[in-house]
Design goal:
CATH class: Mainly Beta
Largest sheet: 8 strands, antiparallel, barrel
Distance between the termini: 35 Å
Shape: elongated
Radius of gyration: 16 Å
Number of domains: 1
Number of strands: 8
Strand content: over 45%
Order of helices and strands: HEEEEEEEE
Helix content: 10-25%
C-alpha cells in the first residue's frame, strides 16, 4: 500500500508544472483542526490536525475535478495514530471561471482512502471559497466532513485554511 501511495504522490508531483499551466486550474496547501465526536472506535475520539495539499482543474465553466493527499495527526488522543488520506474530489463552483470576482465559492464531495493501521474508504463533502489576492495567489477557507463506517459511523469534521497557487 505504501508503494502505491508513494507512486501516486510521485506522479502528482511530476505533473504539477503541467497542472499549473492549464486554464482555471490551481494547486493548494492546507491545514486545520478536525474534531471527531464520540466514536465507538477509541482511536478516532478526540481532536486532530489535518494538513496536506492538492490540485483542481475546471473541466467546464463551473465543474472541476480535483485530488489531494494529506495526514490526520492526533492531538488529544494517546491511542490514535497518524493516518494518511488520498481523495478524489469533484467540485461545483458557483461563479463562472470567466468572472472577474476575487471570491470563488464552491461545494465539493467525493471518496477518500484512509490508511495507516489498515485502510478504509470514506466519503466526504464540504464547501468553501478561494479568495484571490492576485491573479495567481489566493487564500482558501473550507469546511470538510469525512464519514466512514464499518459498523458505527466515524465523523471527522474539519475547518481547513490554506494557500492557492495557479490561475483563477
Amino acid at each position: 500500500m505504501a508503494r502505491i501511495l508513494l507512486g501516486a504522490l510521485a506522479a502528482l508531483i511530476a505533473s504539477l508544472p503541467a497542472i499549473a499551466q492549464a486554464p482555471s486550474s490551481y494547486l493548494y496547501v492546507f491545514g486545520g483542526p478536525v474534531v471527531v465526536p464520540k466514536s465507538s472506535y477509541t482511536r478516532w475520539n478526540g481532536d486532530f490536525i489535518h494538513v496536506g495539499g492538492g490540485g483542481e482543474g475546471r473541466l467546464t465553466d463551473r465543474f472541476a475535478l480535483g485530488g489531494e493527499a494529506g495526514v490526520f495527526t492526533p492531538i488529544t488522543n494517546q491511542y490514535a495514530a497518524t493516518t494518511g488520506q488520498v481523495s478524489g474530489t469533484p467540485a461545483i463552483h458557483f461563479l463562472s471561471r470567466h468572472t472577474k470576482s476575487k471570491v470563488d465559492p464552491f461545494v465539493d464531495g467525493g471518496v477518500s482512502l484512509l490508511f495507516g493501521r489498515g485502510g478504509a474508504l470514506a466519503v466526504h463533502y464540504g464547501g468553501g471559497m478561494n479568495y484571490w489576492l492576485t491573479r495567481r495567489i489566493g487564500l482558501r477557507v473550507e469546511f470538510r466532513h469525512h464519514i466512514w463506517s464499518e459498523e458505527s459511523p466515524v465523523n471527522m469534521i474539519g475547518l481547513r485554511l490554506g494557500l492557492v497557487f495557479g490561475t483563477r
